[in-house]
């Protein structure tokens, strides 16, 4: 009998905890809801010629010698996350996965420094562990 009561109470406590945790997520605070929207002045920018899309492009930095995580962050920051994912591969000959990017250093990059990057560019870094020498 007590086991049933204990299980029931435990289930209720867990259920209430989940509801409280979920209800605290997302949504605007009361202060945010009370704010009055203010109009923003907008200006028309010169349009691209008919049929052409304005090109997004950036200059690839030299990231050789950088920590892999920093190199990835720099690409994301440079492109405003238009290039969000970059690839990397182990140059140490062991085909290791780069699980903790902060433990790897960039030895090579597939796009030369100064070359154009576009949203469709696929950036790939050749890396070794921080305590290893680039081949």
UniProtKB/TrEMBL annotation:
Annotated stretches, region: Disordered: 29-54
The protein's name in its UniProt record: PASTA domain-containing protein
UniProt source species: Actinophytocola xinjiangensis
């Amino acid at each position: 009998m007590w086991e049933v009561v204990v299980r029931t109470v435990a289930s209720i406590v867990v259920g209430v905890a989940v509801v409280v945790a979920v209800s605290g997520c997302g949504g605007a605070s009361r202060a945010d809801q009370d704010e009055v929207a203010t109009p923003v002045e907008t200006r028309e920018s010169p349009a691209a010629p008919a049929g052409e899309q304005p090109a997004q492009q950036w200059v690839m930095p030299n990231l050789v010698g950088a920590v892999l995580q920093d190199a990835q962050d720099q690409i994301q920051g440079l492109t405003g996350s238009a290039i969000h994912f970059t690839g990397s591969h182990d140059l140490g000959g062991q085909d290791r996965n780069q699980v903790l990017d902060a433990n790897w250093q960039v030895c090579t990059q597939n796009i030369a420094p100064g070359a154009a990057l576009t949203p469709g560019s696929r950036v790939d870094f050749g890396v070794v562990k921080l305590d290893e020498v680039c081949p």
